[in-house]
Amino acid sequence: MAAFEMQQHVRFQHCDPAAMVFYPRYFEMINLTVEEWFRIGLDWGFHQMHEIDDRGIPTAKIAVDFSAPSRLGDVLDWSLEVKRVGTSSLDVEIIASCEGEVRLTCRSTLVQFVKSTGRPVAWDGLIRDRIRAFEEQGTADQ
Fold first, then answer.
1. 12: three-class secondary structure by DSSP
2. How far apart are CA 133 and CA 110, in angstroms?
3. Listed residue (63, 118, 67, 122) closest to 90, CA to CA
4. pLDDT over 50 at 61, yes or no
5. d(CA 84, CA 93)
6. Model confidence at 140: pLDDT above 50
7. Nearest in space to 82 (alpha carbons), one of 101, 103, 107
8. In the chain, what are the domain boundaries?
């Protein structure tokens, strides 16, 4: 399967006085991309995950390269691809572009844990299979 894809509009709330995206706002957009991937791509929305299943997926590691500025009114195309699936973690690459120009590349590690205990927990088989559908071709457990 291809990467998960979605669009986000650059709004006034995202911008600094120069009408460019203020870099911390990109992290909110990255988080929205992850949240929408879980909701739409994996059919496991954050309400179900957090409130019913007692799970969470905090970011354990994140690195972002900013390639070009985004401006008020831009429509950013976001893609998320799984690079590695571990026992309780996964590595993703998230790219934002506008009209074919890459604006940022994010590499992040997410870890599933049980909220009530704070301990990591292995991916459920069904969710793991859904995650693998977004995995880069040719990768395997490490």
1. helix
2. 17
3. 122
4. yes
5. 10
6. no
7. 107
8. 4-132
Q: Measured on CA atoms in the order 93, 77, 64, 43, is the torsion positive or negative?
A: negative
Phi, then psi, of 73 in degrees rounded to 5: 95, -15
User: 3-state SS string over 29-58?
Assistant: HHHHHHHHHHHHHCCCCHHHHHHHCCEECC
Q: CA 67: distance to chain centroid? A: 18
Instruction: Give the CATH class of 4-132.
Output: alpha beta
Cα–Cα distance, 101 to 51 (Å, whole number): 38
Amino acid at 96: A
- pLDDT beyond 90 at 17: yes
Q: Tell me what the mean pLDDT of segment 105-120 comes to.
A: 98
How would DSSP label each residue in 91-102?
Answer: EEEEEEEETTEE
Burial 108-119 (b: 16+ CB within 10 A, else e): bbbbbbeeeeee
